[in-house]
Structures are given as C-alpha cells and as structure tokens.
Amino acid sequence: MAENYSFFNSKDHDRVYNARHWADYFFPLFKSGVFNGDLQVVANGGMTVKIKSGYAWIDGYGYHLTDGLVVDLETASGNMNRADSIVIRLDLTNRWIKAFCRTGSYYAGAGIPPAPEITATIHEIVIAHISIAAGVTEITQDMITDTRMDGDICGWVCGAVDQIDFSQIKTQFDTFFANYEEEIRTQYGLYMQDIERLETQGQDRYDNMDREFTKYENQQKENIEKWQQDEREYLDAWINAVQTEYFAWLDRIKDILDENAAGHLQNEVDNLTVDAFNRYYGLQAQETLFLDDGSIKTTNEEAEIITEFGFDEKGNETAVTTVKPFVGMYDYVKTTVFFTEKVTSSTEKKERV
Questions:
Q1: Each residue of 95-117: pLDDT tens digit?
Q2: Residue 256: how many CA atoms within 13 Å on its side-chain side?
C-alpha cells in the first residue's frame, strides 16, 4: 500500500515530481474524453476526413489540436465493406497524444469498427466511426457517426463546462431522421403501388364476372324466347290440324245437314277458334304472377297454369308447364328440355290425386 500526495515545496530535493504526478493530480477531477463541442469529425472531400480544432483529456493528460487536421483513409474495397475508427491515442511509452485513423477489417455484410485499445501504457478514445461501403470513392457526412458523446468509448469532459452544446449532435440526428423519412416515403410509395395493383385486379375480376353474368342472362333469354316460339308453333300447328280435320269432317257431313244447322256449327267453330286465339295470345282475362322462386303462375276462368324453370338430372335447363283445369279429373303437363344443340318437348296427361 502506498500513500501518494502532491504538491509540496522541495527541501534539499526531497519532493521531486514528474509529469505522471501532474496527471495523477488531475485524473479524478476530469473524466477522459473531449471538451464540449471540440474535435468534431467532418467530411473533407475524397477519401479524407477533417478533425476540427479543440481539446481532449485522457487520464489526466491534455491534448490540444490548434488547427483542423486532415486524416487520409484507405481506398474502399471493390466488393467488401468496412468501418474505420477515428481515435485520439495516449501513448505513455512514446510520450505523446495523437489523432489518427484505425482501419477496420473487411466484411461481406456491415462493417464493424475497431474497438479502442486500452492497456497499461495506451488509452484510446474514439471520436467517430466511418462506414465505408464497397466501391465508395468519397466520404460524405452521412457515413460519419459522431461518437464523442458515447461514454463507453469517449464522452464529454463534463466537469469543465456548465452546459453542453448539443447543436452538432442535433445536426447528425436531423440527417438521420431525414434519411429515415425518405425511406418511409419510399416504402409508402411501394405500398400504394401494391394497393393500386390490387384494385386493378379486383376491378378486372368484377368486370369478368359481370360479362359472364350478362352472357348467362342473354343465353337464358334466348332459351326462353326459343321455348315461347316453339310453344306458338306447336299451338299454331295444333289449331291448323284441328281445323283441317274439322273442315274435312264438315265436308263429309254437309250434305246431310240443313243450312241452319251447318251455319250454327260454323259459328261454334269460329267462337272456339277466337277463344283459343285469345287464350294463347293473352287476350283472355287472366292474372299472371311472377313468384319469388322464379316460376310463373297464370290464372284465368278455366284453369291455373304454372310454369317452373329448373334442371334435369343431367344438368340441362328445363321448363315444365302444368295446366290444372278447374273442371275435370286430369292435369296436363308439358316438359321442355333445352339441350346445347336442340330443344325437346313432351306432354303428359296425369290423373289428379
């Protein structure tokens, strides 16, 4: 154990002091680092940086840079990244304090700057890190990270000032946030492009669905119109056949009928023909309902007629018309099947249950 003390006047050279004693005297009074706002590292053009003037304090030893110092950096690799450290080094063996660049190792990813060297005779403080990407030919300010306020590798000599000036640090933060804002704007632009692409896809799919629906609707209309035309032709053929058969019969019996009977019979035929015409072409009083299930229900004074649309067991579209006379014991059912190539119809007489 030793008890050290200083400083006292010497008597007969019994109190001899050197620089180490002087440094030890100030060591507990000031933390190692740089004085407020001093020794800032800035870009200087090309592969160089400049350390601005100022003071540093390391383990009780003082450093004063009277004018700006330009520091040369090694040329960047063509395909690898690195990070350098700008340091202020105290070297007790060589008895000096100097500033210089410690070149970092090369990495395929982000570079890692060298840590400060601290031994029994060497103490470095790091005032800046410089990120040097592959192919860089000029150092810009956004590549420089100010580490003067990082207490682990440098720090301020806070005991020497009443208030710390953060303007230089604020400038670095402003640069960082400006770059961050630009990145956010870029990502937002990409996001909006994705939204527009999805909107376009959605509109295209909607348009395709609308075209398919319109096509299906038109096909259904064509099928119904064809079915109606077939019904008209069927009825017209039936009427013509009945008339032909009747007139042939009338010719056979006209010689045995007197004039009044033949005229009366002709009137009855004319009335039946008009009645059939009115029924088929909708001139007879009737009520027609279009039901929620898609079927059509028609009621007149003689019968109830229901037409239902659907599909058979093979998926072909069908139209089934059931005529239910109010008088009689039978219903009459006509089934029409719409095939892709043709349309077929069949009729059936069913006894009413």
A1: 999 999 999 999 999 999 999 99
A2: 4
Cβ atoms 91, 68 nearer than 8 A:
no
Q: How confident is the model at residue 258 (pLDDT cuts 50, 70, 90)?
A: very low
**Edge-to-edge strand order for the sheet containing 48-51?**
41-43, 48-51, 69-72
SS3 content of the chain, % helix, strand, coil (to 5): 35, 30, 35
CATH architecture of residue range(s) 19-163: Sandwich (2.60)
Residue 352 has pLDDT above 90, yes or no: no
Amino acid at 228: Q
Burial tier of 169 (Cβ tally within 10 Å: 0-12, 13-18, 19+) = middle
Q: What is the dihedral of CA 7, 8, 13, 17, to 10 degrees?
A: 0
Pairwise CA distance, residues 27 & 62, whole Å = 11
The per-residue pLDDT for range 39-86, each reduced to its tens digit, is 999 999 999 999 999 999 998 888 999 999 999 999 999 999 999 999
Domain ranges of the chain: 19-163, 285-353
Closest CA to 153 of 118, 119, 121: 118
